[in-house]
Structure formats: structure tokens, C-alpha cells
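Dock iron/sulfur cluster; give full complex structure.
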Amino acid sequence: MNVVYGSPSFTSEVMGTGYCPGCGHGTVHKLLAEVVEELSVREKTVLCYPIGCAGLGGGWTNLNTLSCAHGRAGAVATAVKKTNQDNVIIAYQGDGDLAAIGMAETMHAANRGENITVIFINNTNFGMTGGQMAPTTLIGQKATTSPDGRDLERHGAPFKMAELIAKLEAPKFVGRYAVHDAKNAIKTKAAIKKGLQMQLDKKGYSFIEVLSVCPTNWKKNPLDSAKYIDEVVSKTYPLGVYKDVE
Amino acid sequence: MSKEFIKGNEAIAEAAVRAGCRFFAGYPITPQNDIPEYLSKRLFEVGGNFIQGESEVASVNMVFGVAATGIRSMTSSSGPGLALKAEGISNLAGARVPSVVVNVARGGPAIGTILTAQQDYLSATKAPAPGGFKCFVLAPATVQEAADLVYEAFDIADKYRTPVYVLADGMTGNMMEVVELPPMRELSELPSKDDWRVNKLEQDGNFRSISSYSPTAEGLQEMNEASEAMYQQWDKEEQRWEAFMMDDAEYVVTGYGSSGRIAKSAVKELRAQGIKAGLIRPITLVPFPKDAFDQIDYGRIKEIFVAEMSIPAQYADDVRWATKSKLEIISVLTSGGVILETEAIVDAVKERV
Ligand code: SF4
């Protein structure tokens, strides 16, 4: 049989990713695994996983993983890279982890400019715990802890992480991408590849924000979720490259 | 072997380097600042790394990551800093990551005081964080012992794949004494961690995961049973204490760390006055040296004087447990940075003679 398209050799065929059907995480995991395979860096890679849905795919990618305490992947990844320069270190985090409880670790890791790649999954809510308001929840968006919708006066504005990180001196590559359709997924993959290649070339810190769908908590089917990214989410969070000083 | 007149905190730092520690992350807090200050230069001289973390939380998690790659790693702090490190310490214990955590204890609760105290006994020995686990806990009483125990802590950590908690105090950390520093270990002689470190795939090509998480209830129970078996092994094989003048003692004084040292002076003073006093000074707090208390002649001895720089008393609870409530406990306490006086212990004993 002539296989024209398949999974990376080291992803688990037995074990699923653990994500809900239609979830964006699974797509990002697959892209990440493809990049790792294409760059032949599986042996060297350590994934610093967060707490939250983002950690569910750990076994599926079959990459060495460090389970970081909630929000601490930025600190863990910094230190692991500093002491293991030949390893490829990826911090993979959701919005509660990276932008709420881990904000200090995130900003300091970025500001130190450690030669790591941060993949930030922004799905505008706390997925695993059932859809609570996140720092990234949109104005007007309903969440289980903002039942009337996020209100600027009551809750403050959503954090735009890519824009914030791009303002710091040290980061070298910062961009916001999406995975709700093939065109965007291909761009996301290219960004991840660029980030990892920069690590290999010792060029410095890269931050890749990915707008991701959470059909379960958004209470939308996958198609409507994809539409929501196009029509709503990406209006608050414009896609594009925010910094590229490679 | 080299002898040096050195401050406790610096002796701790240098002993760590000589034990093969090549990574330290920490955050400034008094009275332990000499440790990070010293290591911020020294570690780079030996090819290691130092990071001043953005917080206590970040620092201990940095140690988690680096130690998981098999590099001997340490963090240190004091009082409120340990509260912030609690999450990280439980992750070190849950994921079985060998590491050394030093507490140069100060007075509490909370901000309390920067002055020396022993208010952290319960948190160090019973519950460094929620979740139900233990660290191996060592309690040095002198600068020499601080250097020796920190040096050894790395071996204990590796032997059991556990965090080792060194409970020192501001007094030991900040006084200068003549110390014989241990020899420099060659990294090549340290135990290999290739069979578990996270940045190496399994032999069959599968991934490794260093994690305190279990996807199944049975899996977590197994992890906890394995830890419990380790704690029981510590109990059997690792209890350590100093017994002084106990053979014919009629009055027993006990204390750990600096209080143990002061208690020893009190015992010497009492002996000079013709009173048959003896000392039990735990060196391991976990495992608790209960065998030392089992050896007490309960026919001859009726009461035990427990010296500690903590109000309320904390260590005294374990003494009560270890002596099976067969002795009357007489606590001699100070708190808040007030250093115990030898005379206070001597007087407490003499009142009963
Ligand atoms: S809850 Fe949302 S983010 Fe979590 S797995 Fe399900 S769809 Fe994905």
C-alpha cells in the first residue's frame, strides 16, 4: 500500500489523545509531532506539559515529558534548557496555565529569552475544569464563572499574550496562529517548525500562540466552533507575526 | 580535607558544590541570602548553573525540571518562602525527583521575624504540602554538621529518589565556625541516572514521563504504596541521633538543631554540678529516631525536658509519641527570635532535682 499521509512514526496508535472530538489540541499535537519527526529531534525533545486539558495528549505524542505544576512550565523549561543546551525544550500550555496562574513564570521566561519554544493554546476558557472564565475570555463571552458574559468593568480586558510578549526585548519570534482549517494549520506547523529550528540554531526564544477551539465548553459543534474563530475570536486576537528578529 | 573559618550558609553552599550539586535556583529571603549569593558565583566556576528565580515558586520548579534531567540540584529558603515552595516540594516528592531543599529557619507564623527560630518542625516533618507525603529531613546543629549533612543529603536523595529537606536555622546559617569541608566529588563518580532521567528515551524507544500525576486511581495508590515502602525503609535503616551521657542519666534533655546544641551545653553544665543529665539529639527528623527513645530506661527516668525555639511546642509532640506518653514532658521554649539560654534548661532540670 502506498501511504501518502499518516501519523508520525512515534505517535501511539493504541492510545487516543484524550481530547474531546473536534478539540484543537489534538491538531496541534499532531503538527508538533510531525515537526519533531521532520527535524529528527525526538531523542532530544522534552515537552514541559502543563495542568489542564493541554496535558492530556502526553502519552499520544510519545515524547519525553515533564509534568509541570500548574503554570510553572515557563520556569521549568528555562532551567532545563539552561542546563541541557542540546535538548529541544517545548513548553506547551493552555490559557489558564500560561496567562493566569503562570503569568509571572511566563513573562520572566520570555524576558530572560531562554532558547526555548512556548506553544500557547488559547481557547478562551478553562477547558478541563468545565469552562470557567480565563484571562483570555472575550468581552461578552459567557463562561461558567461569568454567566452574564465577560464584562470590561467587572472583569477587565482579555490578555493579549502574543502582543505582550512581543513588546519584551528578548523574544526573537512571536506569532499568533490558528488550527481550525487546513490553511491555518499549515501556517501553524510552519511556525512551530521555525521555533524548533531556531532552538537548534541557538537563536533564542519563540512564542507561538494558537487560537484553538473548545467545542465542549463553547457548546458549539466543531463547524460552528471553526466559524466562531473566524468571525469572533480572531477579531480580538488578530492572527499574524508580532515579532521576528531572526 | 581543608579547614576553613566559614559562615554556616556558605558552608552549606560549598558543601553542596562539593557533593556534585550543579544547579541552584532560589529567591532572596533572610536569613539564608548567603547561600544564593555564594552559589551565583561558585556554580559557574565548576561548570554549573544558577538562576535567581522570579519567585520561590518558580525557583523550586526550576529545581524540579533540572533534577529530573539527572543533575544534582538544590534550592534554599526560609519560613514564608517554604510555604511558597510547598507546591514544588510536593511535586518533587510525588514525581520522585531527587533534590535538596534547605530551610534556614526563622520565626513565624507567616512573616514573623527574620531572626532564628524553630517554628517549622511540623511543616517540615509532617506536611511540607498537602497531598500526604514525606521528605527525608536532616537537622544540623553546628556549621560542621550543616556542611556534612548537606553533602550527604545529595547521596540520600539519589539513593531513594526523594527530596531531602535540610532543616537548619538562622543561628547555624549565620554563625562562623572552623569547618573541615568535605572533598570535591567527581561528577563521573556519581550514580548514573540514565535509567530514569527525563531527557532520555526508554530502551524500547518509548517516552519517559516524570510526573506526580496518575491517570488511574489504582496507579496513584501504587505510587503512594511505593513511597510508603520507602518511608518504612527509612524507619528501619536511616534513623540517626546523638546520645550524650545517656548511660547513667536520670534526667533526659532533648532538642534538635540549635536547641540540641544548647541542650548539650546544659547537660555538660548539669553534669559539672553533679546532676546526672543526658541528651538525645535527633539528627534525622524524618525518619524520627524513635529507637533512641525506646532505649530510655523508663524505670530510672520519669521526665524529659524538651528544648525548642518554638511556641507552641512542636517537636515535643513527637517526643510524647516516641516515649509512648510514659514520661512527663517539660518544655523549655522560646519563640520569635529569642535564642534559648543554656541556663533556662539547667534551671528547669534543677527545679525537679
Ligand atoms: S474541554 Fe475543550 S479544550 Fe478540553 S479537551 Fe475538550 S474541547 Fe479540548
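Observed: The mean pLDDT of chain A is 95.
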